[in-house]
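[worker-b] picked up task from shared queue
[worker-b] task type: protein-ligand structure
[worker-b] ligand name resolved to flavin-adenine dinucleotide; SMILES cross-checked against name lookup, match
[worker-b] sequence length check passed
[worker-b] input payload:
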Amino acid sequence: MDNSVIVIGGGIGGLTAAALLGSAGYHVQVLEASREWGGCAGKFQRGKALFPVGATLGMGFENGGIHQRIFQYLGIELPSNQLLDRVMDIHLPGVNLTFHRNRETHVKGLIQSFPDIADEIGCYFKDLYSMAKKIRTLVDSLPILPPKTVREWKELIMSLNLSSMTLLPAFQKTMLDLLKKYDLHVHPSFKHFIDGQLIDSMQVESDQCSLLFGCLALDMYHEGAFYLEGGLYRIAECLVDASESVGVKATLGRKVVGITRDERNQEWIVSDHRGKDYRANHIVCNVPVQSLKDLFPPQYAPKFKNYIKGKERASLWGTMTLYMLLKEESLPEGLPLFSQICTSPDGNMTEGDHLFLSLSHPDDRKRAPEGFRTVTVSTHTRLENWDSKEKYDCYKRTLKKKMLDSIELVIPSIRSNLIQFYPGAPKAWERYTGRPGGIVGGFPQTNDHALFNSLSHRTPLENIWVCGDSVFPGAGTIGVSVSGYHVFHSITGKKLPT
Ligand SMILES: Cc1cc2nc3c(=O)[nH]c(=O)nc-3n(C[C@H](O)[C@H](O)[C@H](O)COP(=O)(O)OP(=O)(O)OC[C@H]3O[C@@H](n4cnc5c(N)ncnc54)[C@H](O)[C@@H]3O)c2cc1C
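[worker-b] inference finished, payload out:
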């Protein structure tokens, strides 16, 4: 059967690929190791409280956004969502800022907070928004990077126009170069603000962040940031429903432990942890690329080594996440649904000095009963801090305390109002989302790992594909959906309408 596909992993990338391939008439089987769909954008339930595992802030639901385009193509409705005008509040040492969806209001607000650099901020954002606009027209047709086939090169060239040519000098630049152009790199609070946005979206700060990707990231929320009722796991649920309605088999609780080749029948054989085998012509791996070598027999190891060459030394992040249920009355008035809390006077962006805090909407009964709210708070952490049993337990305690101390800056009575409290350290991430060692967020979007230096969804093995946050264009539900679409496009030749 040359139109059979097995998708390994039911994260947003894998489910996007599965739903699209199913809609094109392919025989698709999705195998998900855990008991929940959505991976890092999934959920878990404790009593009446529902917690998002990781991802909370939605993008790509606006007209022309990737989720909207894919859902429209599949003929399904988007999950119920709320467009946010006030995207998030940012608490920096000594100054509080608001990220406004409206570009003009946003820049005005920043100028009010930093009047001494008003002109510089104005010019910086003028450049940034103009570059982001050009990049958006370039990526509208969803070109594949790095191009590996004649068709991919052709599609990339076709997506270019005169204005995208003006981006060429920016290809090797970093966001720091743009800050330097207006002397903003020496303004600690403004730089801290930009770094905080970039670490959450690009996994890297301005000094190393690819300028082109950084511009897109800093412009993204202006296109639309959304709260989804229930949480972003609704994307996964909708994709599973759409898939099943066209005959895709989607199975939870099936961990894939091996993939071998049946040369005689030109098929791949996928084995799950219960010893069951599945056969298909194409395999879509929605797992971090670091997991691939363990799924295949040793003879393929050199090919995978070559595939991820240059990525072995990339510094990857883990995360520590706190999941909490609080009484509504313990929250200060006017606290928005999303906040960044940045406590370090010297601009450190990790290890509890920088937190992303998401609250459930007061009317979201899927997430918490009336009068209660769930809170998810995450911070970036280096996995070296967790690499022995002694270090692990001690660091978990230290970081938990530090995170609670930081949260107290915006929710002063947090400690005395915790109804439920669950810390999620790297091992929990490894266990529940299958991410080796607890790595999250894909490769940092530096010039060494972004754009032409990204990993392709096309592996060196015939009909073995990868989607998810390890491959172009990278992390976030919108990034991994694009990679799921790229797999679909490469297998079927079909395209999303522009
Ligand atoms: C703390 C945190 C906060 C985030 N916040 C946001 C946000 O606000 N907005 C946003 O857009 N993005 C956010 N992200 C990023 C986003 O969640 C991820 O980039 C995206 O969800 C990853 O999707 P994926 O397709 O790569 O698959 P994953 O989420 O990695 O899912 C892969 C799935 O494969 C399964 N699996 C693994 N191995 C096997 C196997 N051997 N057999 C079967 N199944 C297997 C896993 O159980 C998992 O369900 C956040 C990430 C983190 C960690």
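[worker-b] attaching auto-annotations
[worker-b] The pocket of flavin-adenine dinucleotide is lined by residues 8-14, 31-34, 39-41, 54-57, 59, 255-256, 286-287, 291, 319, 321, 378, 433-435, 440-441, 468-469, 475-477, 480 (CB under 6 Å).
[worker-b] releasing lock
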